Amino acid sequence: MTSPSTTLSLVDTDPAELAVDAIVIGLYSQSGEQAADAGPAGALLLASGAESIAAAFDGKLTETLALLGATGAPGEVVKLATLGTVTAPVVVAVGLGGEPTGAAPAPEALRRAAGSAVRALAGARRVALSLPLPDDADAAAALRAVAEGALLGGYRFAGYKTRPQPARREPVAEVLVAVPDAGDASAQAEVTRAQAVTNAVRLTRDWVNTAPNLLRPPAFADAVAEAAREAGLGVEVLDEAALAAGGYGGILAVGQGSEAPPRLVKLTYTPEGGGNGKRVALVGKGITFDTGGVSIKPAQGMWEMKSDMGGAAAVGAAMLAIAALKPSVAVTGYLPMAENMPSGTSYRPGDVISMYNGKQVEVLNTDAEGRMVLADAIARACEDGTDYLFETSTLTGGQVISLGKRIAGVMGTPELCERVKAAGEATGEPAWPMPLPDDVRKGMDSDVADISQVNAGMDRAGHMLQGGVFLREFVTDDVAWAHIDIAGPSYHSGEATGYWTKGGTGVPVRTLVHLVEDIAANA
């Protein structure tokens, strides 16, 4: 099921003269004695891009916005009928927070502002954004942020309702972004990139939001494979027979409790001319639904476990963006898929599983299934050969407890973890490096196998770190690697905010694409 899409283009026409349903401008909040002395309107400051709109209102725009309750708080949206003062019938002021000192707003502030405004304008057909864009070295990042925010803010999952919803408004169909020169090649390149990347994010959201009975492992594998072939990627799909013949014990163990058999999807991007000689592997967890298996989860909130394939969705969609952007580095994606169900054929606590690389794993908790499928995929990626390995998964509740619902935990090679952190800062998908202590590994010693799947005493201390320590066992010494735990950031269960709507967020598609482009440019 595909969500309605929003188109985006650049314009360099005077914003006051644009024939659109609404024109969006930025609004800063000011503080201090000078703002207080000037009254409510003095606490507001129009951002650059709003000059011609302000002139049309004879300098009374901030005063009018203040009367309507505007504060300039980040993401705040205030609508004002123009009554013919400008061509657009509605001016929309979106809050940018405090005025930055000697600089343009941070890209993430622009991204969230654009998303908030476009989301609030659902029902309008054509909207223009006249937000502050610097004319210096930060111009590209600012334009990218505005474009991404607008395109993602317009996302809404199509859903399954059979009756008309009178109060439901269609997402904005067309967004125009006001820039100094709409014909500038670098600006046009940013729009092209933003469209490719946000298409991937939107597809990730669609896959995550799909009802789990409609996206079981075979169907998920088919959907990814079809999209990948259309994008020109190499595709290999291993079914349950091929997995058994290949010795993928972890994937098979998790999937054996379900009537919908597991899959491993491999996607290959080969750059023209061989690229820069480096190889990148992307691995994503694809548990299409996670009941916990025999170690069953509580009923409360279990419906959100349809999102437990968010890592595989992100990797699959990121590969489509990579195919469109054509970076000069070889990239291979590995998507292990299974449905973790309780049945007479489920794997059990106490089982010993022979993994793809030959390691023997003692199972203590069937709800720690993600690391089992990922271990096989990681071992396969290392066997195929790679220089960098990025794995992402909704792996542990410990990530949410440690870092909250917006910040991913990243573990692995220290230098690569810092690179992930930098990519997260650049894309608005924050990640924080975490350690892999020796005592956590010691706690996973098994009496009967090479390693326990979780702490041998079922101690949940350092639960997020246990996942990283386990996965490290399957990475060969010559590979730089990073495990990105997105248990919180991949799914948003609250009210819409910024460019996030309720449901799948698409994290960390933009981080993965950024990392691949960075390696292509800088190795």
Automatic annotation (TrEMBL):
Enumerate the catalysed reactions.
Release of an N-terminal amino acid, preferentially leucine, but not glutamic or aspartic acids; Release of an N-terminal amino acid, Xaa-|-Yaa-, in which Xaa is preferably Leu, but may be other amino acids including Pro although not Arg or Lys, and Yaa may be Pro. Amino acid amides and methyl esters are also readily hydrolyzed, but rates on arylamides are exceedingly low
Q: Which terms does the record give in the GO molecular function aspect?
A: manganese ion binding; metalloaminopeptidase activity
> Could you give the cofactor binding note from the entry?
Binds 2 manganese ions per subunit.
Enzyme Commission number(s) from the entry: 3.4.11.1, 3.4.11.10
Q: Where does Mn(2+) 2 bind?
A: 285, 290, 308, 369
Q: Keywords in UniProt for this one?
A: Aminopeptidase, Cytoplasm, Hydrolase, Manganese, Metal-binding, Protease
The residues responsible for catalysis, as annotated, are 297, 371
Pfam families from the entry? Answer: Peptidase_M17 (PF00883), Peptidase_M17_N (PF02789)
Task: Provide the Cytosol aminopeptidase domain boundaries.
Answer: 365-372
Per UniProt, subcellular location reads as: Cytoplasm
The entry's Mn(2+) 1-binding residues are: 290, 367, 369
Name of the encoding gene: pepA
Give cofactor(s), names only: Mn(2+)
Protein's name in the database: Probable cytosol aminopeptidase
* Natural source organism: Micromonospora olivasterospora
Q: What is the lineage of its organism?
A: Bacteria, Bacillati, Actinomycetota, Actinomycetes, Micromonosporales
Gene Ontology CC terms: cytoplasm
The GO annotation for biological process reads: proteolysis
- What is the predominant subcellular site recorded for this chain? cytoplasm
Q: What class of enzyme is it?
A: hydrolase
Function in brief: Presumably involved in the processing and regular turnover of intracellular proteins. Catalyzes the removal of unsubstituted N-terminal amino acids from various peptides.
Q: Which Gene3D superfamilies match?
A: Leucine Aminopeptidase, subunit E, domain 1, Zn peptidases
Record's keyword annotation contains Hydrolase: yes
Q: Which family does it belong to?
A: Belongs to the peptidase M17 family.
